[in-house]
Each structure stands twice: as C-alpha cells, then as structure tokens.
C-alpha cells in the first residue's frame, strides 16, 4: 500500500509555504531554474537539448506551465539530478519524510507528557 505524504509535511521539509497548485508550480519552476543555472546552461541550450522552444523552458521555470514526465526525466538527466530533486527538492523523500514524521511524533508525545 502506497502512502501519500501530507502536503504540510512536504512543505515543511522543503522550507516553503504549504502547497497549493500555484505554489507547487512556482516551486518546481524555481528548482528547474536553479538546476539549470547550477550546470551553467542557458534556456536556449536546454531548449535545444530537449527539443522544445526557449519560451517553453521559460514557461516551465516561471511556473506558468510544467514539463510532462518525459521532459522532466530528460531535464533531470541533463542537470545531473533526480526527478525527486526537481519535483520536491530532495533526493530521498521517503527517508526524509520518515525522519520528519518521527520527529513530529516525538514532539507530540513530549507535548502531552505531564511535567
């Protein structure tokens, strides 16, 4: 059975505001831009490598639109990162979430223990 990670937890892990669709698109766009800049590529370079227009790359990075799954995988390979890094800002979301959930449970238990 696959468990969905709570949005607030993912937002807390990524250091961003709780995610709605617009915030999520902007966050992904920001990660796409940061990853591209980290490997010193221009939007035009990326556009040529993934067979899209420079305007499409700009639209992804501004959060107006999003790449499809195949394009996202191509971008991850081009930038030398994981798709998880581009989508949620971490390479091991399950491990990171387990750590955060354990801390939240611990904090909750401590808050309810009598002094």
Q: What is this structure, in a nutshell?
A:
By secondary structure, the chain is mainly α.
Can you offer a commentary on this structure?
The protein has one domain (7-112): Orthogonal Bundle (434 Repressor (Amino-terminal Domain)). 70% of the residues lie in helices and 0% in strands. It contains seven helices and no strands. The chain is an all-alpha fold and 115 residues long. It starts with 6 loop residues before the first helix and ends with a helix. The longest helix is centred in the C-terminal third of the chain and has 20 residues, at 93-112. The model is unreliable at 1-6 (pLDDT under 50).
CATH topology grouping: 434 Repressor (Amino-terminal Domain)
What is the average per-residue confidence, as pLDDT, rounded to a whole number? 79
CATH superfamily: lambda repressor-like DNA-binding domains
Number of helices: 7
């Amino acid at each position: 059975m696959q468990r969905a990670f709570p949005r607030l937890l993912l937002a807390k892990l990524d250091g961003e505001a709780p995610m709605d669709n617009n915030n999520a698109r902007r966050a992904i766009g920001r990660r796409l831009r940061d990853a591209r800049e980290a490997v010193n590529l221009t939007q035009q370079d990326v556009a040529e490598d993934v067979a899209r227009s420079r305007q499409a790359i700009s639209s992804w990075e501004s959060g107006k639109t999003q790449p499809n799954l195949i394009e996202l995988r191509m971008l991850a390979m081009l930038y030398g990162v994981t798709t998880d890094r581009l989508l949620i800002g971490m390479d091991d979301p399950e491990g990171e979430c387990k750590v955060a959930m354990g801390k939240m449970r611990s904090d909750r238990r401590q808050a309810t223990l009598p002094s």
